[in-house]
Amino acid sequence: MTESILNSVKKVLGVASDVTHFDLDIMMHINTTFSTLNQLGIGPDEGYMIEDSSASWDAFLGSDPRLNNVKTYVYLRVRTLFDQPQTSFLNDAMKKQIEELEWRLNVYREGTMWTDPTLTTAL
Length: 123
Description:
The chain has helices at residues 5-13, 23-39, 57-61, 69-82, 88-113. It is mostly helical. Helix 2 (23-39) crosses helix 4 and helix 4 runs antiparallel to helix 5 (88-113). The radius of gyration is 16 Å and the shape is globular. The N and C termini lie far apart (45 Å).
């Protein structure tokens, strides 16, 4: 199943998929989050961005189920940028969840893609 990134983020934000008034704003925040994920070492090396609802999670994540928390991470980051919670309690809780997910994604990346920086290759 190829799930649309834009439509799934809109769903958890409470925006119907047929409402397109906020698509540019939401896509901008999704792409900002993808840039952050790229800096964390998650996603394609060359980066990733969406331009419409045709981009799927499979295209970004591949088939590794250990990256399922990326979807929640993208939602939380977009939510704090697009529709920031009005209470400090909820805002703080979301920030803590974002930090935990960043830590977990970093642990995943280090466990699967880490190379020893002290090793050098002879030319």
